[in-house]
């Protein structure tokens, strides 16, 4: 009980300093809790949606996915004959059955030819209005569609694009473009995660989406009273026989939920990874806080030992303080995490994904995980300072506050740090020298781990030399105040090293990712310059294939000299070594593609691959399956016949653009795949007549005005798109890493605040002999800048080393150019100085307000 009272008294006596450490715990726990609450809420939302929209049993055509997704490389959904509906209605246990048609391979535009698709990446779904939809949608104005000239739209899409009754819209599919006027608006009865829904009547949907009457994509079956879904499924399968996909409501919902969980899983674990980084940075803050508190209370601890307190009691007293800090920070963090989840939901709503706070899901595991993480990490971080406190001897009560440094421990630390850093460097060397990226990745991971730990351990040793160098460059201009700031930073190298290490971690990751991202862009643009001979690339950024009407509009552009179509489909391969490879990609392109993409070959000529019944393979594929020029590969095309193709060229695997592609001509594909099953173009290359490039660019854009889902890019545009794509990804990662940097800044603030308290008497004496308040504040600010720049130098140097090694591995995959983004590196370094200035504002202000006489009288 005495130990608990002592711990509570000490905790409350230093509540201001504890608050900064609690904020670090709070932020880390909040990020973990917020991620868990957000993903659980997303799962709840989709669970309700899928449960509400799934019929008791759904019958789909062979080729439909488990989720009922109807996209295909032909742009038309797989369909069921009308006779299937009659057979299902006659099955025992069926109360009702209804044929429906829907597709997601569509684009919907308004009168101005602007896309009405969600910006969030959610699907655009056009289908027939049916009884199953009527259960989940309520018509709020107008009426359901009747006749080819009417369409109904969901209320969220109508609000987002300011659509009203009577407005005309166009549905663009592989069949063509169908225009209709809005006859009704329907609101979701459950939360809509952002999909845009458009409804036609059944005959119109059949003509618009499939191009033929009397067919359905699905048959929705409702069970009679007392008939289970499983029993109904067995009856339907028995009546229809094989060749159909039949699923219960639970199976359909589970398949949809699996896709959602895969998407959410990537986001969830990425966010948890960054929360882990924040925890790691927070550990340094907590260690520093308790180390300084223990150092300041050396006399008090010595007196406790002198009057009978055991080492265990002193140790336990410090750990109880850490436990209180962990519990308080974790509880606040769990609450803040729920707020973060709500904020993420509001943010998603701004980009079109509507999530209702009514579905907010806080599982019992979330606060438990948050509390456990926060408390365990805090107590573990405080263990070393607590152990150090337990070693304080009673004789320390007779000394001034502050325990002498352990020289032996410093030597051991330096040796261990050197060994770990050297081991990490050797692992990075092995990674850069690896012949296969899979082998090098393991060495890279070990190198990052060991070098990071090594730099953390050896940080106090490096602090002495690096702070002097930084001081010579940055602080000498500030005269005696600068020299005092340098000495303050050098006074306790362990503290400076730990504080700088917290900032180092976040900046190392920033530097590494910047190098990797810049190298990827530079490598891709370099290969683009070397290999792409076409003037323009036309494709959909959302992954939709080009409709025949759009391709015709491109080909009809008079300024173009040639147009090259590019298709991707699936086939089963039987290679010369007797192996069968199922559902493998094969690329079909016009013969001019050999000119449009100057792909490096290691054997043969790529132009020969476009001869009838010929193909090319890439080098690694050839090596794995014993393929050489003249080898025969049996290719069973999906939706077509089997061909025996001769290998006429072997391309290099060491490329970025079209890496791993296996080429045939569109003529060969058409020979074995009927027209009804021919895949649409993934993209199209276009080359202008000599001297007409400038005129062809606007002409192409004008030709595709009615097809806003497609983008025309010249090579410059394509490079910019690559930069933007990687830049957006990096900006998102930098934003998440900002959490770790915020925690590191708190560490600098805490270190300076405690350092000011530790030096209260010294500050009073300096003020008494003439140091002005302004000079005192400047001294503390400069000390903070030195610590921040020390952490930045360590982090940026380490990160660039990681990034350069990672690029060596990427070079094995064709990304050969190493580019150091010096503007970013220099900007981060300079920014670190401002971070130091910002972190010192409050400690410097408090030091400047200190009463001189009271400070001198302090013991």
From TrEMBL:
<dbReference type="Pfam" id="PF02687">
    <property type="entry name" value="FtsX"/>
</dbReference>
<keyword id="KW-1003">Cell membrane</keyword>
<feature type="domain" description="MacB-like periplasmic core">
    <location>
        <begin position="19"/>
        <end position="235"/>
    </location>
</feature>
<keyword id="KW-1133">Transmembrane helix</keyword>
<feature type="transmembrane region" description="Helical">
    <location>
        <begin position="443"/>
        <end position="475"/>
    </location>
</feature>
<dbReference type="InterPro" id="IPR050250">
    <property type="entry name" value="Macrolide_Exporter_MacB"/>
</dbReference>
<dbReference type="GO" id="GO:0022857">
    <property type="term" value="F:transmembrane transporter activity"/>
</dbReference>
<comment type="similarity">
    <text>Belongs to the ABC-4 integral membrane protein family.</text>
</comment>
<keyword id="KW-0472">Membrane</keyword>
<feature type="transmembrane region" description="Helical">
    <location>
        <begin position="362"/>
        <end position="384"/>
    </location>
</feature>
<dbReference type="GO" id="GO:0005886">
    <property type="term" value="C:plasma membrane"/>
</dbReference>
<feature type="transmembrane region" description="Helical">
    <location>
        <begin position="732"/>
        <end position="757"/>
    </location>
</feature>
<feature type="transmembrane region" description="Helical">
    <location>
        <begin position="782"/>
        <end position="802"/>
    </location>
</feature>
<feature type="domain" description="MacB-like periplasmic core">
    <location>
        <begin position="499"/>
        <end position="654"/>
    </location>
</feature>
<dbReference type="Pfam" id="PF12704">
    <property type="entry name" value="MacB_PCD"/>
</dbReference>
<feature type="transmembrane region" description="Helical">
    <location>
        <begin position="318"/>
        <end position="342"/>
    </location>
</feature>
<feature type="domain" description="ABC3 transporter permease C-terminal">
    <location>
        <begin position="274"/>
        <end position="394"/>
    </location>
</feature>
<feature type="transmembrane region" description="Helical">
    <location>
        <begin position="414"/>
        <end position="431"/>
    </location>
</feature>
<feature type="transmembrane region" description="Helical">
    <location>
        <begin position="496"/>
        <end position="517"/>
    </location>
</feature>
<feature type="transmembrane region" description="Helical">
    <location>
        <begin position="822"/>
        <end position="842"/>
    </location>
</feature>
<feature type="transmembrane region" description="Helical">
    <location>
        <begin position="269"/>
        <end position="295"/>
    </location>
</feature>
<keyword id="KW-0812">Transmembrane</keyword>
<dbReference type="InterPro" id="IPR003838">
    <property type="entry name" value="ABC3_permease_C"/>
</dbReference>
<dbReference type="InterPro" id="IPR025857">
    <property type="entry name" value="MacB_PCD"/>
</dbReference>
<feature type="domain" description="ABC3 transporter permease C-terminal">
    <location>
        <begin position="736"/>
        <end position="851"/>
    </location>
</feature>
<protein>
    <submittedName>
        <fullName>ABC transporter permease</fullName>
    </submittedName>
</protein>
């Amino acid at each position: 009980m005495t130990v608990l009272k002592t711990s509570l008294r000490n905790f409350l006596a230093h509540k201001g300093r504890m608050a900064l450490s609690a904020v670090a715990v709070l932020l880390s726990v909040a990020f973990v809790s917020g991620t868990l609450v957000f993903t659980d809420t997303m799962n709840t939302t989709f669970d309700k949606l899928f449960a509400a929209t799934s019929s008791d049993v759904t019958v789909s055509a062979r080729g439909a996915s488990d989720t009922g997704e109807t996209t295909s490389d032909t742009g038309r959904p797989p369909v069921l004959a009308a006779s299937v509906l009659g057979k299902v209605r006659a099955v025992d246990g069926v109360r009702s059955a209804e044929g429906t048609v829907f597709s997601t391979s569509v684009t919907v535009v308004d009168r101005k030819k602007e896309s009405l698709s969600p910006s969030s990446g959610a699907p655009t779904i056009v289908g027939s209005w049916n009884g199953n939809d009527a259960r989940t949608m309520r018509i709020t104005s107008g009426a359901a569609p009747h006749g080819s000239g009417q369409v109904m739209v969901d209320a969220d899409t109508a609000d987002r694009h300011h659509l009203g009754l009577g407005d005309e819209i166009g549905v663009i599919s592989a069949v063509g473009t169908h225009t209709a006027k809005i006859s009704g608006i329907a609101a979701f009865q459950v939360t809509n995660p952002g999909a845009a829904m458009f409804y036609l009547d059944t005959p119109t949907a059949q003509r618009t989406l499939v191009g033929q009457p009397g067919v359905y994509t699905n048959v929705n079956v409702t069970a009679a009273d007392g008939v289970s879904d499983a029993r109904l499924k067995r009856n339907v399968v028995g009546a229809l026989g094989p060749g159909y996909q039949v699923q219960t409501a639970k199976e359909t919902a589970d398949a949809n939920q699996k896709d959602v969980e895969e998407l959410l899983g990537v986001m969830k674990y990425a966010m948890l990874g960054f929360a882990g980084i924040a925890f790691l940075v927070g550990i340094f803050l907590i260690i520093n806080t308790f180390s300084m508190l223990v150092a300041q209370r050396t006399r008090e601890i010595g007196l406790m030992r002198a009057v009978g307190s055991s080492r265990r009691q002193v140790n336990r007293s410090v750990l109880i303080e850490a436990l209180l800090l962990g519990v308080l920070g974790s509880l606040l963090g769990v609450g803040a995490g729920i707020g973060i989840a709500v904020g993420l939901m509001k943010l998603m709503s701004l980009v079109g994904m509507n999530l209702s706070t009514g579905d907010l899901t806080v599982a019992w595991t979330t606060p438990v995980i948050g509390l456990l993480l926060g408390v365990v990490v805090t107590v573990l971080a405080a263990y070393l300072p607590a152990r150090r406190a337990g070693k304080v001897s009673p004789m320390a009560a007779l000394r001034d506050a502050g325990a002498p440094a352990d020289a032996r421990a410093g030597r051991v630390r330096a040796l261990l740090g050197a060994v770990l850093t050297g081991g990490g460097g050797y692992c990075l060397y092995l990674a850069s020298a690896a012949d296969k990226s899979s082998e090098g990745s393991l060495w890279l991971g070990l190198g990052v781990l060991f070098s990071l730990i090594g730099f953390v351990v050896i940080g106090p040793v490096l602090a002495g030399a690096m702070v002097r160098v930084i001081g010579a460059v940055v602080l000498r201009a500030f005269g005696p105040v600068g020299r005092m700031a340098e000495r303050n930073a050098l006074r306790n190298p362990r503290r400076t090293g730990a504080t700088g290490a917290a900032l180092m971690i976040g900046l190392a990751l920033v530097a590494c990712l910047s190098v990797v991202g810049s190298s990827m862009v530079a490598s891709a643009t370099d290969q683009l310059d070397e290999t792409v001979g076409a003037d323009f690339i036309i494709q959909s950024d959302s992954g939709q294939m080009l409709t025949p009407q759009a391709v015709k509009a491109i080909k009809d552009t008079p300024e173009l000299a040639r147009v090259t179509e590019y298709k991707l489909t699936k086939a089963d391969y039987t290679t010369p070594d007797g192996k069968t490879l199922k559902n493998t990609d094969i690329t079909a392109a016009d013969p001019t593609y050999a000119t449009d993409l100057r792909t490096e070959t290691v054997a043969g000529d790529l132009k020969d691959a476009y001869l009838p019944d010929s193909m090319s393979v890439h080098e690694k594929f050839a090596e794995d399956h014993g393929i050489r020029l003249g080898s025969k590969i049996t290719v069973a095309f999906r939706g077509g016949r089997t061909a025996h193709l001769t290998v006429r060229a072997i391309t290099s695997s060491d490329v970025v653009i079209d890496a791993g592609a296996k080429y045939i001509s569109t003529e060969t594909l058409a020979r074995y795949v009927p027209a009804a099953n021919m895949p649409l173009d993934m993209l199209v290359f276009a080359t202008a007549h000599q001297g007409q490039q400038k005129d062809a660019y606007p002409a192409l854009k004008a030709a595709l005005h009615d097809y806003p889902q497609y983008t025309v890019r010249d090579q410059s545009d394509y490079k910019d798109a690559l930069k933007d794509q990687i830049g957006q990804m990096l900006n998102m990662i930098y934003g998440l890493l900002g959490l770790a940097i915020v925690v590191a800044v708190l560490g600098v603030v805490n270190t300076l605040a405690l350092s000011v308290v530790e030096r209260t008497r010294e500050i009073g004496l300096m003020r008494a002999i003439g140091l002005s308040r302004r000079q005192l504040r400047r001294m503390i600010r400069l000390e903070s800048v030195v610590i921040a720049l020390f952490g930045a130098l360590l982090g940026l140097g380490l990160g660039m080393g990681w990034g350069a090694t990672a690029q060596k591995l990427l070079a094995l995959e064709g990304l050969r150019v190493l580019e150091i983004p010096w503007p970013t590196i220099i900007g981060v370094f300079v920014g670190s100085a401002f971070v130091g200035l910002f972190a010192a504002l409050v400690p410097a202000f408090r030091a400047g307000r200190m009463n001189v006489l009271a400070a001198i009288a302090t013991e």
